[in-house]
């Protein structure tokens, strides 16, 4: 039977923008089918936007209207977090719910705002209920900090553990989410870089962590040799384990140490390709990446953050300037793009550059 629901009525020309915004604000009622008519779409909602959300929506969607309509019910689907807790959480707190859940193996990690602290157990149990493969839910206690790039986490639901087995792009990884940095949000980036690698390349992965770049590159291409460096001893321990799990221990060579010292002492001029996935500080290591590249040149995958009013163009200029100050030449930018938004007006980016 059709069901009456609050809805947003949006002109089709702005339909994709409107749908994306409503999804981002966790307002859409996913139990009901979206209606598409000649010149408008009607999106079912389970709540009204608050004042701030309404201003944002109207600024980006001309002629936005709210009404009530009849909608057909969808077949069963996995509930969103907002849908799972909406009858147990005050409606004014729904907009504060976590927008994203990082799932690593059977561990889910969320970031909760201070006003949700009293409801963390409810949120954790709802995640366990809607993600049947998840056994543990952890809440972030702060930002990633320190030389080892670690974050404090606490259990809010499920088993009391921080280790898990994670599958990504056909590889298996043992992960300790409190012992070594790992982000499932970079899965497609790992895949993209792996597809660029040619057989018989030598690669230096300057900040290898538990090996998501190194192991996938070595597993997918014949004759590849990867020097995988990390300063965190726990990351190197897990990297060794993961190399064995994926049977690439003859192609991935974990090195515990500082990337600068390791390259200057052992790895000058060896690399066809250098991976620099330490976005907080990668600009401080451009000079040593140049030293790692073969004297005939190679490719650098350079990761960083930029925040408005900074721009990706400024980051490209910075890379070129530092490369030239170190006696090399940036021949061309192969690719430069934002990868993901990390905070309001802040993005992680990648620049692939050919350096001579």
Describe the protein:
The protein is α/β, with parallel strands linked by helices. It has three domains: about 70 residues, Alpha-Beta Plaits (2-Layer Sandwich), CATH 3.30.70; about 80 residues, 2-Layer Sandwich (GMP Synthetase, Chain A, domain 3); about 170 residues, Rossmann fold, CATH 3.40.50. Helices cover about 25% and strands about 30% of the residues. It contains ten helices and 17 strands. It has a seven-stranded mixed β-sheet with strand order 13-12-11-14-15-17-16, with helices on both faces. A hairpin with a 2-residue loop joins strand 16 and strand 17. The longest helix is centred in the last third of the chain and has 14 residues. The termini are far apart. The mean pLDDT is about 90.
Q: Would you state the CATH class of the largest domain?
A: Alpha Beta
Report on the biggest sheet.
7 strands, mixed
What is the count of structural domains?
3
Kindly provide the radius of gyration, computed on alpha-carbon positions and rounded to a whole number of angstroms: 23 Å
**N-to-C SSE series?**
EHEEHEHEEHEEEEHEHEHEHEHEHEE
CATH architecture descriptor name of the largest domain: 3-Layer(aba) Sandwich
Mean pLDDT: 92
The low-confidence runs, each spanning 5 or more residues with pLDDT under 50, are: none
Q: Pairing-aware structural class of the strands and helices?
A: alpha/beta
* Overall morphology: globular
